[in-house]
Amino acid sequence: MCTSFLAQNDSTDVKENTDSLSTKFNIPLFSTSGGDVDNDLEQQDVSSLLASSRDVFAQFASFQFGVGRYRMRGYMAENQMIMVNGVNVNNLETGFSSWSSWGGLNDVTRFVEQRIGITPNRLGFSGVGGYSNIDSKASSFRKGTRISYGYGNRIFAQRLMVTHSTGMMQNGWAITLSASTRYGNEVYIPGTYFIGSAFYASVDKRINDKHSLSFTGFGAPIQQGRAAATTLEVYELTNSHYYNSLWGYQNGKVRNAQVSSAKRPMLMLSHLFKINTAEQLNTTLFYNFGKTGFTSLNWNDAPNPRPDYYRYLPSYYYDMGDTVNGKIWENKWANEPNTTAQLDWDRMINMNRANLTSTGTRARYILENRIENLSNVGVNSVYSKRAGELFITVGLNANMQKTRKYKELEDLLGASYWLDVDQFAENLGVEESFAQNNIETPNKTIEQGEKFGYDYSININRAEFWGQAEYTFSKMDVHGSLSISNSSIWREGFVANGKFPTTSKGESAKMNFLNYGVKGGIVFKIDGRNFITANGAFLTRAPEANNIFISPRVRNDQANGVTNEKVLSGDISYLAKYPTFKFRATCYNTTISDQTWLRTFWSDEFNNNVNYIMTNVDQNHQGIEIGVEKTLFVSHTIQGALGMGQFLYKGQPTAQAWQDNNNKSLFAERTVYLNNYRIGVSPQLVTGIGYRYSGKKFWFAGITFNYFDQVYIDPNPDRRTAEALTKYVSTDPQVNLITEQEQLPSYYTVNFNAGKSLRIKKKYFLNFNLSANNLLNNKNIITGGFEALRWDYSNISKFDNRYFYMTGTTFMATVNFNF
Question: Is the pTM of this model over 0.85?
Answer without folding.
Answer: yes
